[in-house]
Structure formats: structure tokens, C-alpha cells
Amino acid sequence: MLAIGAIAAGGAGVAGIAAVAHAEPVQQFSFQLSDTTADGRFTVTFTSRAFDTTGGPPPELRENWLRMPGGARLRREFLRPSFWCDGGALINAASWADPQPRLYNVLRNLDPAIRVMRRTARTRQERRFLATLQTCRRAQIGAGTALIDSRPGIEDVFPADLFIYFGRPIRRGDVASLSIVGIPQQDSAAVRRRDILIRGRADVSLRIVNDPSPDGRYGYRMILPTGRIQGFRVSVAQVEVKAPGLIMQKDGRELFWFTRPTCPASGLISFEAFYGYDPPTEDITRQASNPCPRYGR
To answer: Which member of 31, 104, 178, 223 has the lowest number of beta carbons within 10 Å of its beta carbon?
Structure first.
């Protein structure tokens, strides 16, 4: 029962919509880049906030995407099945490894479940589950939390834990995807009041497509899921995700999954976000510019 904001490589920035006198949706997002290294690695912290000035649930999004800074590209070494995690298959495999309601305990650290299944896997299905756990451990790029607004279907806004993985291309022409597994937080009073949330597990995917702007300012477009999920209208009131990304060993050195974004003459890199609504709500496009990251020598 989740749909969430995107994660991308880049620096720190904030974009939002100022509230006006009449009711309208408000969308805000920010990126912070940290832990940069001389070989081009970085950690991205993404945050977002969404609400309506009436205090009610925001209108449903028709379309939602984020454009990343130009030059930040996925390295071809990571565009292979060994780094493609399927969120739905992961939920099934992790639930098999530990059928207790707190699936979070398995997902926050897959290693214990992998060790057990290495010793006990006998059937073909169990070996498939083991392979899924191993692939998703290799493909995890980050984790975080979200505040989910499913009003009026679920009257209480509730918190959820998020686990983010690299995934296969979804449509022909896509570069790759991000697979996001969400679990309502079991210790929340809002979750404990509803059986559907206690049992809730969800996975959604963000498509990554190559759509460079003519001026080179933007590169990849990350297309977020919209529409109802399992019959519920969903808005992500808040989200915070920390994503160290992926690393692999190649030729005796560590290779980071993204190349560095191109630093324009202005010294700023940019993101662009689009929020599309059905009439009469107007579509929103906003940009955020951030200082080019310093990687050192």
C-alpha cells in the first residue's frame, strides 16, 4: 500500500509549492549528498513532504516523475540480472524464511536468513528463495521510512519502513528500475488498530529511462508509480530515505554504480520534479539547483 518518491544521484536542494489562500496540493522535496570519496562514491539522502492546504488528503496524481542531473549514468557493469531484485519475490522469500508478522526483522538484515537457508534449502522452491535473498542483498541501495496517507479508505495516517533495491527494466527501452518494498510499522498504534495494515506488505517500482534534455542539464527520468494500490488511494505525506548505493569489485578496485554528474559552468547541478493532476487541479513543475559535489583527490 505504498507509492514513494524517487532516489537519484546528486547534491542537496529543495523545491516546493507555496501555499496560497485557496486549497491546493503542496509538494516539497530535497536531496543531500554526503560521504563523497575521491573515486566518485556518495550517499544520497532524499526527503519529501506532500499535503493539501485544506488538511484533507491531496488529490490523486495522474503522473509523477523526477529528472536527474546530466552526466549521472548507471555503469553497464551493474545492468545485469545479478543486481536485479524483484520486490514481490523478495517478500515471498523473506516471509518463507521467517513467517512472523515482523518481516522488517528479516529485511533489515538478510544475512541470517541466507545462512539458515544455505543449510536447509532442499526443494527447488527453497533454492529459488535462497537465490532471491542473495540477489536482493547484493542489490540493496538504501532504506528509509514513510508516512502514508490513504484517507478516506484508512482514516489514520500511518508510518511504514521502506527498503530500496536495484531492479530490472520494466518496459522496452527502460534502463533499469528501483524496487521498493514497504511494510507498515507494527509498533504504531494506527497500524495495530487495523488487521489489513498488520498483514500489509507492498512493492512498487520506479522506472528509470534515458531522456536527456537538449542542453545537457538533465539526464535520466525516474517515473514514479501513480494510481490506486490494492484498491486504496495513496499519498506519501512524508518520506526519508538514505541510499549509499551499490559497489562491486572489478580489477582489484571498487566500482560505484553511478558516474559523476556533469558540473555546469554555473557550478550548480539541477533536479526537476513534475506532479500531474486531473483538472481542475493544475500540474506543477519545479526545479532544485545544488552546488556541484566535491569528491577530493
So the answer is: 104
Q: Answer yes or no: is 3 within a domain.
A: no
Q: How many domains does the chain have?
A: 1
Taking only the tens place, the pLDDT of each residue in 168-199 is 999 999 999 999 998 888 888 888 787 778 77
Residue 32 exposed, middle or buried by CB count within 10 Å (0-12, 13-18, 19+)? middle
Residue 5 belongs to some domain of the structure: no
Could you tell me the residue range of the domain that residue 230 belongs to? 13-291
pLDDT tens digits, 20-77: 445 688 888 887 777 888 888 888 888 888 888 888 888 888 999 999 999 999 999 9
| Residue 97 is assigned to a structural domain of this protein | yes
Q: Using an 8 Å Cβ cutoff, are 246 and 200 in contact?
A: no
Other residues' Cβ atoms within 10 Å of the Cβ of residue 156: 15
The verdict on residue 4 lying in a domain is: no
